[in-house]
Amino acid sequence: MLFRSAGFGQRGGGEGLRTSGFSETVDLGMIGPIKRDPGIVMRVELPDRTGLQMDRFYLRGMAYDRYDGKSWTTRLGHRRALIESPLGTFTVRSASSHSSRPAGQIIRQTILLEALDTAVLFAAPSPESISGQFLAIQSDPTGAIYLPFPPSSRIEYTVHSRLTPVAPADLQFSPAEYTEVFGQHFLQLPESSERVGALAREIVGAKTSAYEKAQAIETYLSRHYRYSLDISSGMHARPLEEFLFERKTGYCEHYATAMVVLLRNVGVPARRSEEHTS
Fold first, then answer.
1. Does residue 85 sit in helix, strand or coil?
2. Which residues have C-beta within 8 Å of that of residue 40, sequence separation ≥ 6?
3. How far apart are alpha carbons 211 and 172 in whole angstroms?
4. Partners of residue 19 on adjacent β-strands
5. Nearest-angstrom CA–CA distance, 226 and 123
6. b/e map 204-238, b = 16+ CB within 10 Å
7. Between 57 and 161, residue with greater pLDDT
8. Cβ contacts of residue 217 below 8 Å, gap of 6+?
9. Dihedral sign, CA of 56, 210, 187, 198?
10. What is the separation of C-alpha 81 from the centre of its chain, rounded to a whole number of angstroms?
């Protein structure tokens, strides 16, 4: 699998290729037309793909939990150093290792990554270990993996990730009580117009489970909005409202923001992640 760049600038002298979706702050209201660049930024091989059952393959980077109406940032950015054992292999502590659920399949990925202006290392969720010629690897509470600094040259690494199977209980209605801290991170909403909340409630209707609500919102966005990379630049006081009610055309940043904010408006915890899919 080859992943091509979609960015705002070319590679400069001694600089990594600047691409969209890798920065630690995503300014929804400031993004203009995405530059189409045929350059390949990442190559991914699945050596053990025989027998893997996947509709889609995702690579996840950073996750964001706070949206102020214009920009996404993370308040979960504290990074810890991963333990190297054995030599060259770093263990990632993931939620799956502490779960009572049945273990999912292991996906081994060999990734060749060009020098970008980010320290993030992409991996399929949920990563359990990462191997490569690294001096140090870091991870944050969301499971994102980082180098201490952005690489200055092409790097190659191997990740072992474990799929998290969906349990039947996940698809049923189960009223949840979230802690205050959890809600502050994943139910936080900006001072948005009542129109966004009203739209969210209209979309989900009488649906009760989180899965049904998410499915309804996803279907609504795919049916009523058009995907395009050619979006005019310019400031807008409420970029999400502009996308939902006026322009109704956008790309990944707009769809992801709309999905998360609509979910939070109907009480479903959500976060925004940078992902690539194939």
1. coil
2. 2, 3, 4, 5, 114
3. 8
4. 7
5. 28
6. beebebbebbbebbeebbeeebeeeeebeeeeeeb
7. 161
8. 200, 203, 204, 259, 262, 263
9. positive
10. 22
- Give the separation between CA 242 and CA 196, rounded to whole angstroms: 11
Residue at 244: amino acid letter: L
pLDDT band at 8 (very low <50, low <70, confident <90, very high): very low
Q: How far apart are CA 160 and CA 48, in angstroms?
A: 11
* 108 neighbors 160 (Cβ within 8 angstroms): yes
Q: What is the pLDDT of residues 24-41, one digit of tens each?
A: 677 776 655 555 666 778
pTM recorded for the entire structure:
0.82
* Digit-coded pLDDT (tens) for 222-244: 999 999 877 776 667 889 999 99
Q: Is the pLDDT of residue 153 over 60?
A: yes
Q: List all residues 6 or more positions away from 75 whose beta carbon is below 8 Å from its beta carbon.
A: 65, 66, 185
Encoded tokens for 5:
């760049």
% of the chain at pLDDT higher than 70: 75
